[in-house]
Task: inverse folding
């Protein structure tokens, strides 16, 4: 066990830890999943740090984590993450944990226009700590965990409290703390949203919508086979067979084990273990009747609206000018999607602007009047 790091592997050890940290006003939190290795992503490690101590919780060993969820939901405790979104979604799906009173160091760094907002870049700049990326794609579902892996994971939270303090001070000095705090508050509503399934899931593959007819049918069959196999084995999809190989099979379908084995990206192990299954999927695509071949659905055709496009360009010009003035990335100051909503809604007042979906209070205060000035005045009633 790495020195100074507590590995929590049973309920009593977790209860003891939380008891000792009962008066801690701040907890830094991170999770480790295994999406690079597993199909079903879940939390395989939870890192916790107070201002003085770090613990790593093994959720595969600790059967009951409810006390931790209650602590994270306590509004008296500030919970610090770096890039909280996916951690919050996993914690919500797996345990129903919904942390409150959040501080996200990545969001804080974005509002300070840091050139690098990744945790490694920020820790190196502000704490002089260089994170080893050796275990960045480690299989956190494997047990037992190596000592070095626990040490690596612990570093993700060990310095978060100090980083939070530095970034918070800079936000306050820049007059942007309220901006960040509004974003932190919105994080409290983040929930797990499952990926869309169904017959058209294969169309999410980059390049799928360029295929037509029989190749598209074969792609659907081999994709569905891969996903079902990955789900059953709990193995990341690309570890069954990669996307490039799926497209190669769809465009030049092999009809024998030998032809399949000769294709780039297939691999002898896959052919030996699952070649017949894969060829069966290819045959299903080849034998599908013409009138049942899949088609790429056409999205709604929007009638060109030059006035809307002109409004949007004006809003972008204002946003970009203010982003330069405020030394912020344009997408942080106001994303294009929000500008599109504003261009459609054509608000005529700050109150109406604040009611547009996606618009933050801090955006209304920081650039609301400039955005309204960029919109054409409402046509007078006749």
Result:
């Amino acid at each position: 066990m790495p020195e100074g790091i507590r590995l929590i592997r049973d309920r009593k050890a977790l209860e003891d830890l939380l008891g000792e940290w009962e008066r801690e006003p701040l907890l830094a939190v991170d999770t480790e999943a295994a999406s690079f290795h597993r199909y079903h992503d879940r939390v395989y490690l939870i890192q916790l740090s107070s201002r003085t101590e770090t613990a790593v919780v093994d959720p595969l060993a600790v059967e009951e984590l409810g006390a931790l969820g209650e602590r994270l939901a306590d509004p008296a405790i500030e919970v610090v993450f770096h890039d909280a979104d996916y951690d919050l979604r996993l914690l919500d799906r797996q345990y129903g944990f919904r942390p409150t009173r959040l501080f996200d160091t990545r969001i804080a760094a974005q509002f300070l226009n840091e050139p690098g907002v990744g945790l490694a870049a920020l820790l190196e700049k502000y704490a002089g700590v260089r994170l080893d990326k050796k275990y960045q794609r480690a299989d956190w579902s494997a047990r037992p965990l190596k000592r070095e892996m626990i040490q690596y994971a612990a570093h993700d939270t060990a310095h978060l409290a100090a980083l939070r303090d530095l970034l918070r001070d800079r936000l306050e000095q820049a007059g942007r703390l309220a901006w960040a705090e509004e974003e932190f508050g919105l994080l409290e509503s983040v929930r797990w949203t499952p990926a869309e399934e169904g017959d058209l899931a294969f169309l999410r593959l980059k390049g799928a919508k360029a295929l037509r007819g029989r190749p598209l049918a074969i792609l659907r069959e081999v994709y569905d086979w891969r996903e079902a196999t990955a789900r059953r084995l709990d193995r990341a999809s690309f570890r069954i067979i990669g996307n490039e190989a799926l497209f190669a099979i769809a465009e030049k379908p092999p009809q024998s084990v030998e032809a399949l084995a000769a294709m780039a990206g297939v691999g002898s192990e896959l052919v030996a273990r699952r070649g017949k299954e894969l060829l069966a999927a290819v045959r299903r695509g080849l034998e599908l009747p013409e009138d049942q071949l899949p088609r790429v659905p056409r999205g709604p055709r929007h009638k060109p609206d030059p006035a809307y496009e002109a409004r949007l360009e004006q809003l972008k010009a204002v946003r970009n000018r203010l982003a330069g003035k405020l030394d912020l990335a344009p997408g942080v100051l106001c994303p294009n999607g929000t500008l599109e909503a504003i261009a459609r809604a054509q608000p005529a007042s700050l109150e109406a602007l604040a009611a547009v979906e996606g618009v933050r209070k801090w955006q209304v205060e920081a650039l609301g009047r400039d955005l309204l000035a960029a919109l054409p005045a409402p046509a007078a009633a006749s």
